[in-house]
Design a protein that fits this description.
Elements (H helix, E strand, L loop, with lengths): L10 E4 L8 E4 L6 E6 L8 E7 L8 E11 L4 E7 L8 E3 L8 E8 L7 E8 L6 E11 L6
Antiparallel strand pairs: 1-4, 2-3, 3-10, 4-9, 5-8, 5-10, 6-7, 6-9
């Protein structure tokens, strides 16, 4: 399932109880956009959450969530990913970018009897004043995550 922002078929929701929203940002190549949180939005430790609602995932099966992400700028903050059935602890977290390049994140989603019904991308504001946290090309495939 392609959940990219330019032509995705997925149900994305902004969290109403967080501190700021994620916003669309144009890609450098001019082919669509990605979702981003600029470093200057909000105050240190403020959170912005973007939720992907998942429907029709089969119980007792596995999926792989693959996404592109970028943490650009000094002390820009943290990007975390939460699964709905594991609310309190992130299943993935990154807090600094080595450079401004896009990287690929992969998360295995194992369905038990209880299925995961959403994935949340959470941005936490850091001390920095420049740069951004970005997410793009979110894809859900059935089966285990492929090796690189």
């Amino acid at each position: 399932v392609d959940c990219s922002f330019s032509r995705g078929v997925c149900d994305w929701k902004q969290d109403a109880d967080d501190d700021f929203d994620w916003n669309p940002a144009d890609r450098d190549r001019g082919d669509g956009y990605y979702m981003a949180v600029p470093a200057f939005v909000g105050h240190k430790k403020d959170m912005g959450r973007l939720k992907l609602l998942l429907t029709d995932l089969k119980p007792k099966s596995s999926y792989c969530l693959i996404f592109s992400y970028r943490l650009a700028g000094d002390k820009v903050g943290k990007l975390r990913v939460f699964l709905a059935n594991k609310k309190n602890s992130p299943v993935w977290e990154e807090n600094k970018g080595k450079d401004e390049k896009w990287r690929t994140g992969k998360i295995e989603i194992f369905q038990g009897a209880e299925t995961t019904n959403s994935v949340t991308f959470e941005s936490e504001r850091g001390k920095g004043k420049t740069g951004e946290i970005g997410v793009d090309n979110v894809i859900l495939i059935s089966g285990l995550c492929p090796e690189d």
